[in-house]
Every structure is written in C-alpha cells, then in structure tokens.
Design brief:
single chain; 403 residues; alpha+beta; Uridine Diphospho-n-acetylenolpyruvylglucosamine Reductase, domain 3; Alpha-Beta Plaits; 3 domains; 15 helices; 33% helix
Length: 403
C-alpha cells in the first residue's frame, strides 16, 4: 500500500483532489496509535498527517494553542506545561490498551474526540476545540472557527469534525482552548465499596459544591487490589484543605478515605485514563489472550451497576468505572460477537451507547463497532458524509458499513 505524506496544507489539497479524480480511497492516519480502532480498513492508499508538524500559535495570556495536525501530542503538552498550562480534557493514550506504537498526534485527539477523567468537569475534547483547518473530499482547504469561542450560526464544522474519526476530511491544523495547571491536586480513596455503593458515593460527591474533577471506581480484583473509589479535587492549596475536610464529612457513611497526592495519585489517574487494567501487555503477562474484547460503555451514572450486572449474567466480564460511573470500561471474550448482543441488550433499557474499542479484525468486520444509529440518523450521517466527501475517499466504512 502506498502512502502520501504531504508537508503543507496545499500539498494535502492537491493529493486529495488527485485521489478524488481517480476515486482512490484513502486511509487517514496521524501517528497510527489508534489504527486498530473502528471497523477494519477498506481503503487503497494511506494519507498521513505525519509531515504536518509544528505549533503554529501559543498565546498563554489568551489560553489558546494551535498546532498542525501531525504534531505529537507530547510536544503540545510539553509546550503547555512549560507555561503552567494544560489541555483540560486529559486525553487518553490508547497505546497500552491497543498494544500499538508510534506517537499520538494532536489532530487525532480532535478527530477522535479523545477525552479522559477530567471530562466530567472540563468537558470533552470537542468542548475545548475552537478551530480547525481541513481538506474536504473535493480537495478544498476549509477553515472553521478561530482563536476565540463564539456562537455559531449554521453547521458547526469544528464540532462536526470532532469525533468523526477522519471520515469527513483530512485535518491539517487544530486550535484548542487551554487551562492553567492547578496549584495542587489531591485524591480521596475509599476502599471496599461494591459497585452500587461506589456509584452512590461518587454521585454524592459530584453533586456537592466541592468541585470534583475525577471520579472513578475500580472493583475488587480489577488490578489485584481491593475495591477502590477515587475522587479528585484540584485548585489552590487552601481550598484543597477545606474541601478535603468537607468531603470526608460528607462521605463518612462510606468509610474513612485516605488522601493521596503527588506521583502516587498521578499514577492512579493515568491508569484510569489509559485503561491500564486491560492493557495488552498486562493481559499477555497474565496469560490471557491479547485479542480479548474491550468495550467502552456510556450511560447514566446511577445505572452503571445494573448495566454491568446484566452483561455479567450473560457472559464472563471484568469492568471498572470512570466519569462518576457514567463511563464503563468492560473486557470480555472476543469469541462470537464479542458480547455485542449482551452489551447492547443491557444498555437498551438504561439508555446509552457502546463502542467496541479492541477486538480482532474478524470481529470488528462482523459486529457494529460504533453504536448502531436509527434509520433517520443514519440517513443524516450519510448525507453529511456525502456533502463533505462526495466520492467516499476518507476512511470508508471505518465508523459504519457503507458510509
């Protein structure tokens, strides 16, 4: 398979225009770390953003950063850290889970709407994405948004590109709103709670005025430890001291939580963010097959335990919770439909959606990877795809068969 690696947006536009004339299907990639996510590739040629690198704008006083799409995420985060700033949505690194290599890119973060534990307080990646440049399926360079957040009239292309997984266009540059790094971070750890009690504790904390920025529950045995419920707060040191005391009083019926700070707390949240309990290397070391399926389920936080119980009654599974219980990471066997029937049947009465994040190619080709859309929404999705990519060049079928 040949690869195009344009060095400028103009080169990218020329490549796409020529591909459109030939009806040449293109596999859009950044660093390649998430290539195994989605339906298997149905393309002929790779179009890589790896040559589009460099931070094009950083205005610390305006809390804005822009970079070309192929810029390594680590480079962007290092620039921000040097100025005491950060991407607020805490993007996940898929490499441990997928067993992939390469460097995650800032364009892929936007294209996949990649968000981590801080999403419950800071919003998703799309909420911080305020500008994009991309090449559409006609080979036209398109700019949408800019350096400030504003109301949008008509089709919001910035939000449309976030989470489109490279199916609507080839991103060349992205602009994000950023936030200052908190002066201090502390995590309260409750131990020994079952799923239902943990969901109660997390909901109580999140409903309090004490500004929780991370809420996760690791059930007993998920990583060889006892059950742990994690609640993170961030801000000025004096505020942290006060909020720790108030949260302990608020949660006293759930036990006496331990307070963890520094690298120990950072490691806990990186493990949650990157789904470390289901990491490919960890599973292989434990003697399990790397092709065990991993699902990402989203539902109302209070309904998570019931959803998991329904799945577990149908097939063996392991799981843990993020986003206060609203995000469930679940691992199960990859045989058959990899649990698709059980997962979606359990979610149906609760509401929500499920994405098959890791599974063998044969399973991802046979099972809907992203949540199936009702027919009216599928018609809209296909229409949007046709409007931006009329020849169906970009990542054909990656999200939905035939789209």
């Amino acid at each position: 398979m040949s690869t195009y690696q344009p060095l400028t947006e103009a080169e990218a536009a020329a490549v796409v225009a020529a591909a459109a004339a030939r009806r040449e299907r293109l596999r859009v990639v950044g660093g390649g770390t998430k290539a195994a996510l989605g339906r298997p590739a149905q393309d002929e040629t790779t179009l890589s953003a790896a040559g589009l690198t460099g931070i094009t704008l950083h205005e610390p006083a305006e809390l804005v950063i822009a970079a070309r799409a192929g810029t390594p995420l680590a480079e962007v985060e290092a620039r921000l850290a040097a100025g005491g700033q950060m991407l607020p949505f805490e993007p996940m690194d898929h490499r441990p889970l997928l067993g992939s290599s390469g460097e995650p890119t800032v364009g892929a973060v936007a294209a996949g709407n990649i968000s981590g534990p801080r999403r419950i307080s800071a919003g998703a990646a799309r909420d911080s994405l305020i500008g994009v440049r991309f090449v559409n399926g006609r080979g036209e360079a398109v700019k949408s948004g800019g350096r400030v957040m504003k109301n949008v009239t008509g089709l919001d292309l910035v939000k449309l590109m976030a989470g489109s997984w490279g199916t609507l266009g080839f991103l060349t540059e992205v602009t994000f709103k950023v936030l200052p790094v908190p002066e201090r971070t502390a995590t309260l750890v409750l131990t020994g709670l079952d799923d239902a009690r943990a969901a109660e504790a997390m909901s109580l904390a999140l409903g309090s005025p004490f500004e929780i920025t991370g809420a996760a529950h690791l059930p007993v045995g998920i990583d060889g430890e006892t059950a742990r419920t994690l609640l993170r707060i961030e801000g000025f040191s004096a505020s942290i001291d006060y909020r720790l005391g108030e949260l302990r009083r608020l949660l006293r019926r759930y036990g006496a939580p331990e307070s963890v700070e520094g690298e120990a707390a950072g490691a806990l949240w990186r493990a949650v963010r990157d789904v470390a309990p289901f990491a490919a290397a960890a599973r292989e070391a434990a003697g399990a097959r790397r092709d065990d399926a991993v699902w990402r389920l989203s539902t109302a936080p209070g309904r998570g335990p019931a959803v998991v119980a329904a799945i577990a009654s149908a097939r063996p599974a392991r799981w843990f919770y993020d986003w206060g219980g609203g995000l469930i990471w679940l691992a199960t066997g990859a045989e058959g439909d990899a649990g698709a029937g059980a997962v979606r049947a359990a979610l149906r009465p609760a509401g929500g959606h499920a994405t098959l994040v890791r599974a063998p190619d044969s399973v991802r080709a046979a099972v809907p990877v992203f949540e199936p859309l009702p027919e009216p929404l599928m018609r809209i999705t296909a229409g949007i795809k046709a409007a931006h990519d009329p020849a169906g060049l970009f990542n054909p079928g990656r999200m939905y068969a035939g789209v």
